[in-house]
Design goal:
heterotrimer; A: about 450 residues; alpha+beta; B: alpha/beta; six-stranded parallel sheet; globular
Chain lengths: ~450, ~350, ~325
């Protein structure tokens, strides 16, 4: 049967062989040992012999052609008349693959090309798999029930031998650190091989327990809700566009505290919070200081007729400002229940736009979160916002005497285009009067 | 000792009697013809497999020297001990190791003569009283002296024969071995296969003397040289030497002048040879000359040889296929051959 | 119980084995008529004759190879090297042939041979005659290596070596040939690969062999006076190592010092240290120290030589160091 004669790897390091010259013609007969061609290799020109007897049927490549070892270069057969059409087809395919660089097809049935003998030695043979049959009895090195490396230089199956007798297994370094810091090894859990205590375990011990390697925490992207986007847009604009200044004042809330505790005792149903007092106080003060109850316009500042006080309410994912309309006309209890009702609905996202827009001033109170004082950002188109802190019992000096009073800090952020310092200060002075004399708020002011 | 009768190259102490007097039968010649042809064919298949990267590492082929291995093993008994160096495939097969076992060993397979552990250069088999091949040039020669020592120690009538090359005859171990064999008068035959090249270095560039049998003079050992191109000459000369040693007269050193057709190993293109040298040695080809003997002396015809050739091609092809089909050595046995087990 | 010299114990072992098994023979320089360079084989030529006690010319490579070839066909040669320094010209035979034939022939041929002779520094013999070569033989799989300190060990282990089907490198010491010790009258064998605790202790383990065993015992006495109780473990077999004995001892004492003749670089001490730290890492309270020849070829003058070889003083210092005293 006709078969291929492939480019032999006559030099073990050759990657290609060049056909320098054919030594036989098609149709010639040969015996084992006959030289078929002279091949140029990386080392020298060498002879390619054929180790069979037969007839040369077809030369497949030409003088000057270069092909890798294992690639067919001729077809031969035991008889001179054998057909070899199938081989020609196969050769064409392999040649096409070789030319296009598709090495998998071109090297079909050919040995892999040898490694170039250049720099690094060939990779070490794969380690034999460690099966039970592999560890022969006389080679089994074990100690304390653990297998040692069979080969003395292979990593053994289990590098740790854990607690040894009554000794705690700890690396020398761990022991050193433990001894330096006066830490007992006995209470530590080891993270080294076989439960051995290593440096990291000892160093983590000072922080109350086992030190674990902290995995880095992944970032989380939370998509902006429409509310968040709105808040961001409005407050950024506010922050950028409005020239602000801040006024801070500390109010004595002793009277409010007494009022509230008296009412709690006498009229428990008449509840209100300190913030409700602030709301009413602010509303009354705004009436008296219309410059603060205003909005900037390029042509004219508008002093608002209405006094509508917005109250910042924290909701999930942001905040919203329901508005208490004409707060100066409402009783403290009324304000209180209205705030509660609106805040409740705000948290459930059930406020109508009329309910949270159109205020003329905003109050933000973080006192219940333990904040002493802070600055808020103006809610445009308003001219100011009042940031209210917590009420604390503090030692104060009053009339030269040291006493204890309830104090509350407020910070007003003002739009300087509309409110000047003195204006703002005057507003706050009025507010102080109301908050330090809250009974005034219980009296309706007919002049208003 | 009378000078040699059959074509010695130099005047030497020579064989104890005329080699022409050693009888040879048709059966022996035919057997030798088959064996030499088989060896050659297996070596050719090995060359082919090597160039296809089915055999890796070193591969030293015996092509051209077949007459020496075949003549020598024929001249010895099966209970005698044979040692050679790394060019050992021919001796292994002449000693009875099957072509399948040789090819499988070359391919590193389980059915190889040493199960893939020894490789090309180490084809030892105690079953065939063949110490095998050794890779350190000249280092194996003292081993044969040890076998001969045991022969004398036990007085069991066996001899040891060691093959070595012209290159090995320069090594210290070789000289010491000669000296010990001569001193103790051991039944050892030292057989130099002088193929004129030690790897790429021709003999006259290695040694002042070019007849390695003359090394025997240095220790007072019987020695002579003969041409090793004809299996008949090889058999006769080696038989005389083996018989001499076996009789207790002492060791013998022989040189068989021979030639390898290929390079030192498969990696050697043998460019150091002179133009036409190979062609001229091929005219003395041992297989061709054996065929001539059979035709001229024993009435065989061309067709008989076609048959034999066909047969050998078929059996060697089968052996090759069997070798290729043999699985890789068993990893579980990797450590089995480091130490012989002790009876506990 | 008899009191024998170390050389007499060796002779007794060889004689018994040669009487028992005709395939055992002794070969080497001066072993027959001279009765041995160190008189180990005294009287043996008389008993066994020239066939079995064979003088050789000075051709170590040749006669070591001869021994290997004879072993391959079933004899049991004892090849004497006048000293192990001389073995180096035969290194190729021992390493490339003896150690590998069983494997290269896939178990077809085995090599039941013993190479024996003195190793180490007898004193004032200069660099070529003073080397301790256990490590360069123990390096090779296929060989067994024994190095003995006492007459009893010499007897019991040489017998085992002769009976072992593998090539055995058996190392004695010139300085020990006259050492007397008790050896039982009845025949016995000591298994190859078993160490022996020559002195039990609790504070540290001194691992040693051959001549240094005696130095270590002396050092242990000195240390005992200082309150350090040293265990002295005599390996006896260098390859295969008695790991169990080594690890058990070190796990008990938590400190190890290896005392060896021979150069430190890749010496037996290095191998022992590597294995101890692999198996007994958590049991160690101190790094493992080695007391070896200093890393230079051995000089001739006495004061120089005394500085170079392990001495009782150096052993004591190393032991104190691991005990942090």
């Amino acid at each position: 049967m006709a078969q291929f004669y492939e480019m032999p790897a006559i030099s073990p390091t050759m990657e290609v062989g060049t056909l320098v010259a054919w030594q036989l013609e098609e149709g010639a007969s040969f015996e084992s040992g006959t030289v078929l061609a002279e091949i140029g290799t990386d080392k020298a020109n060498m002879e390619a012999e054929i180790f069979d007897d037969g007839f040369l049927l077809k030369l497949l490549i030409e003088e000057g052609d270069e092909v890798p070892p294992g690639f067919p270069i001729a077809i031969w057969g035991e008889a001179s008349d054998e057909s070899f059409d199938a081989l020609l087809v196969e050769f064409a395919e392999r040649k096409a693959a070789l030319d296009s660089g598709d090495s998998t097809v071109a090297e079909e049935a050919a040995p892999p090309t040898p490694e170039p003998v250049v720099a690094a030695p060939p990779p070490a043979p794969a380690r034999p798999a460690r099966t039970a049959a592999f560890d022969k009895e006389r080679l089994q090195r074990t100690w304390m029930g653990k297998a040692l490396s069979a080969d003395f230089c292979e990593p053994p199956g289990d590098l740790g031998f854990g607690a040894h007798q009554e000794r705690v297994a700890a690396s020398p370094l761990a022991r050193k650190i433990a001894s330096e810091r006066g830490i007992s090894l006995h209470n530590l859990k080891g993270s080294g091989a076989g439960g051995r205590i290593v440096r990291a375990d000892v160093e983590g011990a000072g922080r109350g327990g086992r030190s674990t390697m902290h995995a880095p925490r992944a970032d989380e992207a939370r998509k902006n809700s429409p509310m968040r986007k709105t808040i961001a847009k409005r407050l950024l604009a506010s922050h950028q566009d409005i020239p602000t200044f801040f006024l801070t004042a500390t109010f004595d809330m002793t009277a409010c505290v007494s009022l509230r505790s008296m009412l709690k005792e006498q009229r428990p149903s008449a509840k209100f919070s300190y913030n409700d007092v602030v709301i009413k106080g602010v509303a009354r003060a705004l009436l008296e200081h219309p410059d603060v109850n205003a909005s900037w316009g390029d042509d004219a500042i508008t002093r608002h007729g209405r006094v509508d006080v917005g109250v910042a309410v924290a909701v999930e994912g942001g905040l919203i400002t329901p508005v208490i309309r004409a707060a100066h006309t409402k009783s403290l209890s009324h304000i209180s229940s209205e705030v509660r009702e609106l805040a409740g609905r705000a948290k459930n996202q059930r406020l109508t736009p009329e309910e949270y827009t159109g205020g003329t001033f905003t109050i933000s109170n973080l006192g219940m979160f333990g904040i002493d004082q802070f600055t808020a950002i103006i809610n445009p188109p308003e001219a100011a916002i009042l940031a209210v802190g917590r009420i604390t019992e503090e030692p104060v000096v009053l009339d030269g005497e040291l006493t204890v009073a309830h104090r509350m800090r407020v910070t007003m952020t003002c739009d300087h285009r509309v409110v000047d310092g003195a204006v703002g200060a005057a507003f706050l002075a009025t507010l102080r009067t109301y908050l330090e004399h809250p009974t005034l708020l219980l009296v309706s002011d007919e002049t208003l | 000792m009378a000078p040699a009768g059959s074509s010695p190259l130099h005047a030497s102490i020579g064989p104890p009697s005329d080699p022409a007097g050693v009888p040879i039968t048709r059966e022996q010649l035919l057997e030798w013809y088959r064996m030499m042809s088989t060896i050659r064919r297996v070596e050719e298949l090995a060359a082919k497999a090597y160039q296809q990267k089915k055999i890796l590492g070193f591969c030293h082929l015996y092509i051209g020297q077949e007459a020496v291995a075949v003549g020598a093993t024929a001249a010895l008994k099966s209970e005698d001990h044979i040692v050679t160096a790394y060019r050992d495939h021919g001796q292994a097969m002449a000693r009875g190791v099957s072509p399948t076992a040789v090819l499988a060993e070359l391919m590193g397979r389980r059915d190889g003569v040493t199960h893939g552990i020894g490789g090309s250069m180490h084809m030892g088999s105690k079953e065939h009283n063949f110490f095998g091949g050794y890779g350190i040039v000249g280092g194996h020669v003292p081993l044969a002296v040890g076998a001969a020592f045991a022969s004398k120690y036990r007085d069991d009538g066996t001899v040891a024969l060691v093959f070595f090359g012209d290159g090995a005859a320069q090594q210290g171990a070789f000289y010491e071995a000669l000296e010990l064999a001569a001193l103790y008068r051991l039944p050892c035959v030292f057989l130099c296969e002088n193929n004129y090249y030690a790897m790429g270095t021709s003999l006259e560039r290695q040694s002042y003397l070019t007849d390695m049998s003359r090394r025997g003079d240095g220790v007072g050992m019987l020695r002579w040289q003969f041409e090793g191109f004809d299996v008949v000459d090889c058999y006769r000369n080696i038989k005389l030497a083996a018989d001499y040693a076996r009789s207790g007269e002492g060791p013998v050193i022989l040189e068989a002048v021979t030639y390898r057709y290929r390079g030192h190993s498969m990696s050697d293109p043998a460019k150091y040879r002179k133009e036409g040298e190979l062609a001229s040695f091929k005219t003395k080809d041992c297989i061709a000359s054996c065929k001539d003997h059979l035709i001229e002396l024993h009435g065989m015809v061309e067709d008989d040889f076609k048959e034999i050739s066909k047969e050998i091609k078929a059996t060697t092809k089968e052996a090759y296929a069997a070798a290729e089909a043999s699985p890789e050595p068993d990893l579980a046995k990797l450590y089995d051959y480091t130490y012989a087990p002790t009876e506990s | 119980m008899a009191t024998l010299q170390y050389r007499e114990a060796l002779r007794r072992a060889m004689t018994e084995e040669m009487r028992r098994d005709d395939s055992v023979f002794l070969m080497g320089e001066e072993v027959a008529y001279y009765e041995g360079a160190y008189k180990v084989s005294q009287g043996m030529l008389q008993e066994f004759g020239e066939r079995r006690v064979v003088d050789t010319p000075i051709a170590e490579n040749g006669f070591c190879g001869l021994g290997i070839g004879a072993a391959m066909v079933g004899l049991k040669p004892i090849i004497e090297l006048m000293t192990w320094n001389f073995s180096l010209v035969a290194y190729d035979q021992i390493i490339n042939n003896a150690a590998k034939i069983y494997q290269m022939t896939a178990g077809s041929y085995s090599v039941p041979i013993v190479f024996r002779g003195p190793t180490g520094a007898p004193g004032n013999l200069g660099s070529q005659h003073s080397q301790a070569l256990e490590s360069i033989y123990a390096h090779f799989p296929g060989l067994k290596v024994i190095s003995v300190a006492t007459p009893r060990d010499a007897y019991g282990l040489l017998k085992s070596a002769i009976r072992d089907p593998n090539p055995v490198v058996f190392m004695e010491a010139e300085g020990l040939y006259s050492l007397k010790g008790e050896v039982e009258d009845e025949e016995f064998l000591i298994p190859i690969g078993e160490a022996e605790t020559k002195r039990a202790g609790t504070d540290l383990t001194i691992i040693t062999w051959n001549q240094q065993v005696h130095n270590c015992l002396e050092a242990a006495e000195a240390l005992a006076a200082e309150g350090i109780n040293a265990e002295v473990l005599d390996l006896r077999t260098i390859r295969p190592l008695d790991e169990r004995a080594i690890f058990e001892s070190v796990c008990k004492t938590h400190r190890a010092v290896v005392v060896q003749e021979g150069f430190p670089y890749a010496g037996v001490g290095a191998e022992v240290s590597a294995r101890i730290q692999e198996a007994c890492f958590d049991a160690l309270d101190a790094p493992i120290l080695r007391v070896c020849n200093r890393d230079i070829p051995q000089p001739y003058a006495t004061n120089l030589e005394q500085h170079v070889i392990p001495t009782v003083q150096r052993i004591v210092e190393a032991c104190r160091a691991v005990c942090a005293r």
